[in-house]
Specification:
The protein is an alpha/beta fold. It has five helices and 13 strands. The model has no long low-confidence stretch (mean pLDDT 96). The structure holds fe (ii) ion.
Length: 271
């Protein structure tokens, strides 16, 4: 199973800029790169914060960009999103019975689960009893199937002091649900606008840079959020029965590839 993962495009209405950048143009460049190099992926997942202000004009920009993507996609809600405005522009988005933007995607090798951690009006994330009950049901259906979970808010603090104030507040309850099933092999999150990997409750996780602006690598400042313009990235993910491989790609890096090691490179030394 081959996937592409994008995070936090933060689109604004056409013609506006955000932190001196054009978010639509950056997402457009990302999609052009995916179309050229990874149009054999089965699915593209965008890990939330599709827009910056959650307004219809911004979702229309998201739609315009995604209309050019050559592979199917699944979209998550982030703290900057607004469910009702999103659904007006993307009415066919799969939802659970309560209307949360939660769904699953079944492939032969793995089941993907997309969670909705948006707490309207707040930057922190939540998974209420209704959303957790849906998750339990999703995991209980074929409980041996390797499962990958996608959600905007990371369930742990990482040392970025201001961002850590807005993590998933129901992380303990989520941990209880996941530990009862033991079938979640990997967790993808957004929100932090930084490349961060680790494990949480024994489950490996990966967080990506945004396609627009980044959060600075600053583990000290605790009274304001510091941004930076490190390059944007997306990830290409291969999921085999037992292995998961994640490649990060800085799609705006201007450097040209070149041949390493000379013409007669061999895997045999001194050949
Ligand atoms: Fe974000």
């Amino acid at each position: 199973l081959k996937l592409v993962v994008i995070s936090d495009p933060h689109l604004v209405p056409a013609g506006e800029r955000l932190y001196e950048l054009d978010p639509s143009q950056r997402l457009g460049a990302c999609i052009a790169d995916i179309n050229e190099h990874h149009n054999d992926a089965e699915l593209c997942v965008i890990n939330g914060d599709l827009t910056y202000r959650g307004d219809i004009a911004s979702y229309e920009e998201v739609k315009k960009c995604l209309d050019t993507l050559k592979i199917p996609y699944r979209l998550l809600m982030g703290n900057h999103d607004e469910r009702s405005a999103f659904l007006k522009v993307f009415p066919d988005t799969p939802r659970d019975a309560q209307g949360f933007v939660q769904s699953t995607f079944e492939s032969e090798t793995a089941r993907l689960v997309f969670l909705d951690t948006l707490a309207s009006g707040y930057h922190y994330g939540e998974l209420c009893e209704q959303r957790l009950a849906w998750l339990k049901e999703a995991l209980a259906d074929n409980p041996k199937k390797p499962t990958i979970v996608f959600m905007h808010h990371p369930p742990l603090t990482v040392g970025l002091k201001v961002m850590d104030m807005a993590f998933l507040k129901d992380a303990e309850k989520l941990a209880q649900v996941l530990s009862a099933y033991q079938n979640v092999h990997y967790l993808f999150c957004g929100h932090l606008h930084r490349p961060i990997c680790g494990t949480w409750q024994g489950i490996p996780f990966c967080i990506l840079r945004s396609t627009n602006h980044q959060v600075a690598f600053d583990l000290i400042t605790d009274n304001m959020l510091i941004g930076c313009h490190e390059p944007p990235q997306y990830a290409v993910v291969f999921i085999e029965t037992a292995d998961i491989i994640i490649h990060f790609h800085d799609f705006l890096d201007p450097s040209e590839p070149f041949q390493l090691g000379g013409k007669n490179l061999s895997i045999q030394k001194n050949a």
